[in-house]
Amino acid sequence: xxxxxxxxxxxxxxxxxxxxxxxxxxxxxxxxxxxxxxxxxxxxxxxxxxxxxxxxxxxxxxxxxxxxxxxxxxxxxxxxxxxxxxxxxxxxxxxxxxxxxxxxxxxxxxxxxxxxxxxxxxxxxxxxxxxxxxxxxxxxxxxxxxxxxxxxxxxxxxxxxxxxxxxxxxxxxxxxxxxxxxxxxxxxxxxxxxxxxxxxxxxxxxxxxxxxxxxxxxxxxxxxxxxxxxxxxxxxxxxxxxxxxxxxxxxxxxxxxxxxxxxxxxxxxxxxxxxxxxxxxxxxxxxxxxxxxxxxxxxxxxxxxxxxxxxxxx
Length: 314
Fold this sequence. Notes:
Blueprint: E1 11-14, E2 20-28, E3 34-40, E4 50-51, H1 55-63, H2 69-76, H3 80-89, H4 101-106, H5 108-113, H6 116-123, H7 127-139, H8 153-164, H9 166-170, H10 175-182, H11 186-200, H12 205-222, H13 224-229, H14 234-240, H15 245-259, H16 270-275, H17 277-282, H18 285-292, H19 296-313
Antiparallel strand pairs: 1-2, 2-3, 3-4
Helix pairs in contact: 2-3, 10-11, 14-15
């Protein structure tokens, strides 16, 4: 349906510069501002009507000059083109916020890889700002962005969960336990642990483990007499130190190596084996133990030596 043409003006008002305008349409907005449409008084009938920039409207635009163009145009019920013309007439320049380039350079990894949602929550950055900062780093600083894409929504949700359990992640015992706890791949668990430790300036599990190894090795050296000269069997000494026999033997080997102690390798007693070949082949293990006062392991060792001798002779 065609719009009804108004032949006679509703009233005559002045614009912000004092010029008279014939008003043919008026609209009262919720914010209290009146929007008028009409034409200048000296214009002939039939000319196109336009929005009138009144003093009241000019003051409102000046007061809200920091608002986004889309938002302010929506409030006033005019097009962006009309609002841009009004701002130009009022000599209102768009305010440009100077970027903190030192901050941008320091957070380049996050700006390239973090999701837009995460960056908005952490730093209040819009998608447009993030893209601009990324382009600045690529063009002005010559920094190549990573090939991987930004995180999907499910990754953003997972990131929120990680942030809620930050202390557990930073102070975890092992990366494997962390991956099992949050049901993620071990590479993801490692990356999030390293990143949060860096943000929190805390040592990673790898650094903590290396420090514990260093302290343990120093303890071995400080207690070298107990390890090498106690006169106890490996079994009793391992029990005393709450270690396995294998761990005790490795500790002794480490101490000897650090102190430059060379242990002579025992030469197998082939003469004894040949001399008692009959007993080793025909008696039971327990009988051999009682006969020669040796342990079960020593019996097996001598039988293996006998077997090797026979193989070499054939």
